[in-house]
Design a protein that fits this description.
Blueprint (H helix, E strand, L loop, with lengths): L1 H21 L16 E8 L5 H11 L13 H13 L5 E2 L21 H4 L13 H7 L5 E13 L4 E17 L2 E6 L2 E2 L7 H10 L1 E11 L13 H4 L9 H16 L5 E2 L10 H7 L5 E6 L5 E6 L8 E13 L4 E16 L5 E5 L2 E3 L2
Antiparallel strand pairs: 1-3, 2-6, 3-4, 4-5, 7-11, 8-14, 9-10, 11-12, 12-13, 12-14
């Protein structure tokens, strides 16, 4: 009897061992190198600069907002008009824009606009609106004012795998207008179509995605430096959701990427010619990682030429250029982005005393 029990236990242990060996190994999720796992980011992307008469007085402030670069291939204004028209016809996707003033409030805890207020929020500058009829109110919207939008996204960046994923949680169209001889801006609510989608709905949405176009813009890694440029626009310049996601948070990431490029461990390209792969020497030159020869005086008073080892000043990198593809599911208005490449931008003082910018190297994402 005792031997039988021992044999039975041995069979159970052996079976368990075989089962464990045949069980597939669970892949570990890659680490998010952006300080913490869940990073919510908000930033404005504008299609064009302000009118000529406002550029001089507003130039410092407008440098804080990412504008689409000529490398983009999207009709941003036409897209925003179509998106707003479609959003106004759907119930339950537009939320109160004031949530951007409430730091760390979970993105899922939103209150819908009250009936009437939902539509009226799109009609700044129009007086005596007596109707809440959708079709009538849409006729009053001046879509030429809509030249930018605030994206609310969740970011995931894994340096080792060169993964930069942006999950678009919502988008808030922004319009501009002149009041009392001053440039004013307003937000028209946040469109959040994918708020309550489950896995099945997301899969169906993926099958309906259509390409909108390519966005290329310069993202400021240290938006706090723009604070105080023009009162009232802090919610567009400074990221309330992840206030520590600034240049300091990006430094170790930029340092690792650039040193990997300098060592030839990454394939990098010229920003203006993606077919041109850069050599190690070209990468070092563009990243200002070069030895320098300086004349010094030794202890005997003699002039000697000394070589100073190269030094990478990562704090000169205050921004990066994103190249990304934008897709939309027109049935749900869900937006998705695919980051194609990032290009660190070096800001430095030229020998002439001028503050200049230089595109360093373009790193293609996986």
């Amino acid at each position: 009897m005792k031997n039988m029990i021992i044999k039975l236990l041995a069979i159970i242990v052996l079976s368990f061992s075989l089962f464990s060996c045949n069980e597939p190994t669970q892949e570990l999720k890659a680490k998010n190198d952006l300080q913490y796992d869940k990073v919510i980011v908000s930033y404005n992307v504008a299609a064009e600069e302000w009118p000529e008469e406002l550029r001089s007085e507003d130039s410092r402030w407008q440098n804080c907002i990412p504008f689409l670069l000529p490398q983009s291939d999207i009709d941003y204004n036409a897209f925003l008009e179509k998106y707003i028209r479609a959003a106004l016809k759907k119930d339950g996707v537009i939320y109160d824009e004031t949530i951007v003033d409430e730091p760390y409030k979970p993105i899922t805890e939103k209150l819908l606009y009250q009936p009437g207020a939902k539509w009226h929020s799109y009609l700044y500058g129009v007086d005596n609106v007596d109707t809440v009829n959708l079709e009538e109110n849409v006729k009053l919207i001046d879509f030429e004012r809509y030249v930018s939008a605030i994206f609310f996204e969740e970011w995931f960046f894994n340096v080792k795998n060169l993964e930069f994923d942006k999950t678009v949680l919502g988008v808030s169209p922004v319009f501009r207008f002149i009041r009392d001889d001053q440039l004013m801006r307003g937000r028209s609510g946040i469109v959040m179509p994918a708020l309550n989608m489950d896995a099945s709905a997301l899969k169906q949405s993926d099958e309906r995605l259509e390409r909108v176009g390519k966005l290329v813009y310069e993202y400021k890694m240290y938006p706090a430096s723009c604070a105080g440029e023009q009162e009232g626009f802090a919610e567009e310049r400074v990221n309330f959701y992840a206030p520590m996601l600034n240049s300091h948070g990006f430094m170790r990431i930029m340092e690792k990427l650039i040193f990997s490029a300098i060592k030839g461990e990454l394939t990098v390209y010229d920003f203006y010619d993606k077919s041109k792969q850069l050599s190690k020497d070209e990468v070092a030159e563009r990243c200002n990682y070069l030895p320098e020869e300086v004349m010094m005086i030794d202890y005997d008073g003699n002039e000697i030429l000394k070589t100073i080892e190269p030094y990478l000043d990562v704090y000169e990198i205050e921004s990066m250029v994103f190249e990304e593809e934008l897709y939309i599911d027109w049935e749900t208005l869900r937006l998705t982005k695919k980051v194609v490449s990032i290009t660190p931008v070096r800001t430095y003082f030229h020998e002439s005393g001028e503050r200049r910018k230089k595109l360093m190297v373009t790193i293609k994402m996986q």
